[in-house]
Amino acid sequence: MPVKYPLRSKRKAETRRKLVQAAQSVFFAKGYDEATLDEIADAAGVHVQTLYRHFATKQELASAGDNHYYHLFAEWLEERDPDSTAFDVWRGWLKWSYGGLVASGSFSYREFIRTRHANPSILGELSRIRVQYEDRLCELLAEDFGMSGEQGGMPRLVAGMLLSGSSYVQRRYDEGEIDLVAEAVETVDLAEKLCAPLMAKKA
Fold first, then answer.
1. Is-above-0.70 flag for pTM?
2. Residue 11 burial (CB < 10 Å; 0-12/13-18/19+)?
3. Which fold has domain 7-57?
4. Can you tell me whether residue 79 is helix, strand or coil?
C-alpha cells in the first residue's frame, strides 16, 4: 500500500525512518536501558537535536515502529472493501504487514520483537497502541454482529481474542522457526469459525 508524501514531508519521513532503524540497531547491540539518544542520533547520521524534533523520549522512539504501523492500519481501514468483515480486514492486514516485516532485509523482525518485549519501560506505550487496534476492531465487529457501537461486550471480547492470537503467534515466532504469516492467519480463521453464529448477514 504505497503512501505519497510531498517533498518536505518525504524528507521528514526518511529522517524518522533512519532514526527508527538506528535505534533498533543500537538497542540490539547495547540493550534498551544502556542505549543513549546521542548514540542513536550518531548512528542515524543526524544531530541529536534533530532526533528531539522527531522524538521527545527514548520510549517514544522505541515504540515508533508500532505507531507507524497503527497509522498504516488506520489507512487500511479507510480503503477496505465495504463488504468485508472484521475478520477479512484483520486477516488481510496481518498478511500484508507480517509478510512485509518478515521479508524485510533491513532488520530482523524477530530481534525487534525480542527487544521491545524484554523492556518493561516500552510496554506501557505498546499497551496504548494495542487499545487503539482493539477499539477499531471492536467497531467493525459490532457492525458484523449487528450490535450498536455502544455495546462493547461481545465485540470487545472478540477484538481482544484477535489481538491475543497475534501476540501468541509473535511469541512463537520469537522462540522458533515458524511461518509467522500462516500461523497468524490460522488464528483469525479459528476466531471466525467460533464467531460464525454471531455474524450478521452482510448486505
1. yes
2. exposed
3. Arc Repressor Mutant, subunit A (1.10.10)
4. coil
Per this entry, what is the length of the chain?
203
104-127 exposure pattern, b = at least 16 Cβ within 10 A, e = fewer: eeeeebbebbebbeebeebeebbe
Q: Rounded to the nearest 10 degrees, what angle do helices 109-117 and 7-30 cross at?
A: 70
Which letter does DSSP use for residue 118 in this model?
T
* Residue intervals in the chain for CATH 1.10.10.60: 7-57
d(CA 87, CA 153): 17
**Of 173, 193, 198, whose CA–CA distance to 183 is shortest?**
173
pLDDT in tens, 15-53: 988 898 888 778 777 777 788 999 999 999 999 999 999
Q: Give DSSP secondary structure letters for 10-69.
A: HHHHHHHHHHHHHHHHHHHHH-TTT--HHHHHHHHTS-HHHHHHH-SSHHHHHTHHHHHH
Of the options 2.70.130.10, 3.40.50.620, 1.20.1280.290, 1.10.357.10, the CATH number for the domain spanning 63-198: 1.10.357.10
